[in-house]
Design brief:
With about 400 residues, the chain is an alpha/beta fold. It contains 15 helices and 13 strands.
Length: about 400
């Protein structure tokens, strides 16, 4: 236990407090059981450590932070830890990467039953199934999903520029004022180009090659470790998954031909669909359907996108401007909205009603001229022109 206290102090004292993501204020840390899920690399660990330092200081006592895959847990259980911590007067246990501990849900359920005064906050992979875990925690846990940086958060995180977030309704109805506010503080077009390349993950240190290498490492870890653990994929087939990811990165936005993809990978079509669904859950891909309400388990998507533009830059050997634009829109709006592929009207249908056409600054309204609630999102624009809005403005959505 003393070892854990020493490590707690080391981890918490080293965390930087200069920029703290706003989700820290959205989380109800006082609940008995809180889960923070998200893809590897989006900043879950940093956020948890920042909250501990801000609330409890750096010394372990009322709070204790533990990395669950540490050597300590090869000879001790979570239940033993919780018992000793509660007896010492501990109040809040923070468990990082809980998905790496076998039968984590069973022990956590027993802990909260035995020690109702003890609060537990844990982080886990985006793939962990809290609702379908060995012990049903669905009625007890308050779950949050942490995303990578939006364009708005990038401006704060990397440029020190603070701006409010706007709902999609505000963005579409008040674009002139929003653009004026942003342009008063920065030149958004130039910074947006940077964001598309290096702004999604909060670990860019100024060297693009190293940044992209880290993104590749994130993708490899997710495929090698997390998808095989949580999605029932045989480790022998991870090379197929990586081949699929690279194929899609070079052929996006992919008009889906499952037979062609199955032939390329030398696997059957059902396996291809299973792999695609697993990679969406792992936040490596976005699968876009023409009608989300009627999607069945084995239905092929209408379009496939790499999860975010930074990952696309890291993985693709032939980048296409149109692909980057659409990837950005799907990534940013999928956080708070339903994004569907619009086959005949524009490019995307948002929440079943708003039509978005994505293109360059010279994009015309020909395709959506007579469609109500339709807009163009165009790059290389600082201000809107009627219903043609700057592409970057949807990055103010969260």
């Amino acid at each position: 236990m003393e070892t854990l206290f020493r490590k707690h102090q080391m981890f918490i004292s080293q965390v930087k407090m200069d920029i703290i993501r706003e989700i820290i204020n959205d989380i109800n840390w006082e609940r008995q059981l809180v889960a923070i899920k998200g893809s590897r690399g989006v900043g879950k660990t940093t956020l948890m450590r920042q909250y501990i330092r801000k609330t409890y200081g750096t010394t372990a006592g009322k709070a204790l932070y533990c990395v669950v895959d540490s050597m300590y847990f090869t000879t001790h259980t979570l239940l033993e830890l919780a018992e000793r911590f509660a007896l010492m007067g501990g109040e809040h246990l923070f468990l990082d990467e809980v998905h790496k501990y076998p039968k984590w849900s069973i022990e956590i359920k027993e802990i909260i039953d035995l020690y109702p005064q003890l609060r537990i906050t844990f982080t886990g992979s985006s793939l962990i199934q809290i609702l379908n875990a060995d012990a049903d925690l669905s009625r007890r846990v308050l779950s949050y999903t942490m995303e990578g940086l939006s364009f708005r958060e990038f401006l704060h995180f990397y440029k020190g520029i603070q701006l409010p977030k706007y709902s999609l309704e505000e963005i579409l109805g008040n674009a002139d004022n929003i653009c004026a506010e942003v342009n008063a503080k920065c030149r958004p077009v130039k910074m947006f180009e940077e964001y598309l390349r290096v702004g999604y993950y909060p670990f860019y240190d100024g060297v693009e090659t190293e940044y992209y290498s880290r993104i590749e490492n994130v993708a490899n870890f997710i495929i090698d470790q997390e998808i095989t653990t949580f999605c029932g994929v045989d480790p022998a087939f991870t090379r197929k998954l990586k081949a699929m990811l690279l194929f899609l990165a070079d052929n996006l936005p992919y008009e889906v031909n499952i037979s062609k993809l199955a032939s390329y990978l030398e696997i059957n079509k059902n396996t291809v669909v299973n792999y695609l669904n697993a990679m969406q859950r792992a936040e490596l891909l976005h699968l876009v359907y023409s009608d989300n309400k009627s999607v069945t388990k084995m239905q092929k998507p209408d379009k496939i996108f790499i999860h975010n533009t930074n990952m696309l830059y890291a993985l693709s050997s032939r980048l296409v401007t149109g692909t980057i634009r659409e990837c950005f829109v799907v990534n940013q709006l999928s956080v708070n909205h339903t994004v569907e592929y619009s086959k005949d009207e524009g490019d995307f249908r948002i929440d079943g009603k708003v039509i978005l056409e994505v293109g360059g600054s010279k994009k015309s309204f020909d395709q959506i001229a007579d469609i109500p609630d339709s807009y163009i999102l165009a790059d290389d624009m600082e201000y809107p022109v009627g219903k043609k809005l700057p592409l970057w403005i949807v990055g103010m959505n969260y």
